[in-house]
Amino acid sequence: MASVPLVKSLADIYPQDALAQQSSRWDALYARFRAAYGGAAPAFVARSPGRVNIIGEHIDYSLYSVLPMAITADAIIAVSARPSSGSTYKIRIGNVDEAKFASREFDLDLDADIDIDAKASEWTNYFKSGLKGALALLRQKAKAAGVEFRPCDMDVTMDGTVPVGGGLSSSAAFVSASALAVMTANGQAPVDKKELTELAIVSERSVGVYSGGMDQAASVLSELGSALFVSFSPQLDAKPIKFPHTSPELGFVIAQSFVTSTKHDTAPTRYNLRVVECSLAAGYLNAVLNPPGTTLPLDAGPLRTSLRGFHDVYAANNLAGLDPEEQLQRLISLTEKTLTQEEGYTREELAEVLKESVVADLTKMAAEGDTSAAAGINEADTVANLESRYMSKFTVHADRFKIRQRALHVFSEALRVIRFLKLLESADPASADVNQKLGDLMNATQDSCRDLYECSSPEIDDICRIARGAGAYGSRLTGAGWGGCTVHLVPVDKMDGVKAALEREYYATRALTDEQKSQAVVVSRPARGSGTLVGHAG
Ligand code: NG1
Ligand code: MG
């Protein structure tokens, strides 16, 4: 993968019809920067966009491929840097929306790790997590090269247009742009795209969410005019995918539900719990289906959490050699036969089946230097062992773990992504039913998210029903869910109709501000990934 591009003008980033508005927004960023930091213009601006996921929901952290695309809304961070002195380096950070996001100053110890209070809802945490990750990488590189590294002082002003908590990944846009800003400020430009993506993925976990890598990959690696097929296994890879010119021509509509689900507060019962449930499902399948004592890799590079992944189940199950569609179909039937409890599994029930593998895993983790794993082994207490193996990195709250439903969602969703991609790659523009087939897959995703993964919401279900009724081929939630945003595959001649129906039947029934009304529905075009811009005139 190449390096993050140096972008010369706003016209290289934004569509023509958005230029005037973007240009005044960038002027405002520059004006705010000058006002905050003594009048000089910033040295550069790091930019990274939000994303919409077309298909492949809640499977990135199980390392299955996904198909998102970058959107025009983005995070932009104006920066100037100077060498630091003494025993600290200083970061001053502000936001164009000062009323909502108060300015801060951090005086940080040169060698100390950056402290991020994941429990606090603090906007600068996202910058700090990019900073933490970027500095860790820079230190590691300096060490390998045998040179000294000293972080620089930075003055930073940021502006974001990706709605917060809205499913379009404002967080990944902010973290990726922050990491890019820190790398660039510390003399690392040009920044390698793959390095930046992996760094942003790992960084974002320091705000307390066990996230996969889809958002950061889409934000950094997307190319103008294309969606992005992202794979995580055996390593991070991405390929741009153009949509075929079918008849009628297709477009994507993004519609907000205005139900915000901030991951920060809900992670223990929603997002992180799902990550843990998937790992438990994989561990359970592995324990039952693979011969005892099968040794499996615990970790596959930076994208992998240290939890058990579904790919481990393949290893000794004669699945490894099959083609991916067949693998997934086999996994679906194995899951149906093996994980029979619809009502979910208690910790005791899981511990009983998993006890040997849990002790083996903890022993192996301890041998690899994980001190908390070593402390967690207690031969007599299988539930405590299970908890320290699967639930100690992030807090989760649950009495029962619905591992059957979660696994069935993951495998069927991974299968839908493969089928969607095949349709796109083989689509005969003259064949009228390609559009509906693509839409059917998106609709099946929505059903699976609602029924098996339980990450939809009544509002999202309503929006999907209304949009389909007005002519969308496919409608579903996008992003983590539980509110947030929806995405719709719509023939261009029905776009206005879909928009009008949503306004009439959904938005008119809610108390919304004028700003919300104006942002409720947007037609999304595949936008450009991260870039650094020098010399905007504003
Ligand atoms: P959102 O909530 O839209 O940022 C999250 C995860 C993704 C992915 C999706 C569900 C983060 C940063 N992102 O997206 O990795 O798992 O949910 O497909 O947590
Ligand atoms: Mg996010």
Sheet bearing the most strands, described? 7 strands, mixed
Average pLDDT metric: 92
How would the global form be characterised? Answer: globular
Distance between the first and last residues' Cα: 32 Å
What small-molecule ligands were found?
Answer: 2-acetamido-2-deoxy-1-O-phosphono-alpha-D-galactopyranose, magnesium ion
Q: Strand order, main sheet: write it out.
A: 1-13-2-3-6-4-5
Spans of at least 5 consecutive residues with low confidence: none
Count of helix runs: 17
Compressed to H and E, one letter per element, the order equals EHEEEEHEHHHEEEHHHHHHHHHHEEHHEE
The percent of residues in helical segments reads 40-55%
Radius of gyration: 23 Å
Beta strands, count? 13
From the helix content, strand content and strand pairing, which structural class follows?
alpha+beta
Strand residues, percent: 15-25%
